[in-house]
Amino acid sequence: MQNYKEKKSIINLDWQQTDFLGKISTYDGQKSLLQLQVNALNDLEKYIIEDKDPQFLPPAHLSAKRQGL
């Protein structure tokens, strides 16, 4: 049966569907993480430009180090 499928170029739609949905899920997760990082950087930029109050400091995770950015 497998040999026939290979000769006729029949594809396994169940596997392709599962693979496709898995990739979408992975990409959505990466997109969400990147959006959080962009929002954090935008907030930090706003703080640096607009808020000069020395009593207010940005969260430590924004000033400690740049993680892969």
Describe this structure in words.
The protein is an all-alpha fold. 70% of the residues lie in helices and 0% in strands. It has three helices and no strands. It starts with a helix and ends in a 6-residue tail after the last helix. The mean pLDDT is 77.
Characteristics:
single chain, 69 residues, mainly alpha, 3 helices, rod-shaped
Please describe the topology of this protein:
Blueprint: H1 2-7, H2 13-50, H3 60-63
How do you describe this structure in short?
By secondary structure, this protein is mostly helical. Helix content is 70%, strand content 0%. 0% of the residues are buried.
Shape descriptor: rod-shaped
Low-confidence stretches: none
Average the pLDDT over all residues and give the rounded result: 77
Biggest sheet record:
none
Percentage of residues in helical conformation: 55-70%
Number of strands: 0
Percentage of residues in strands: under 5%
Number of helices: 3
Nearest-angstrom radius of gyration?
Answer: 23 Å
Distance between the termini: 50 Å
- Taken in chain order, the helices and strands follow as HHH
Structural class: mainly alpha
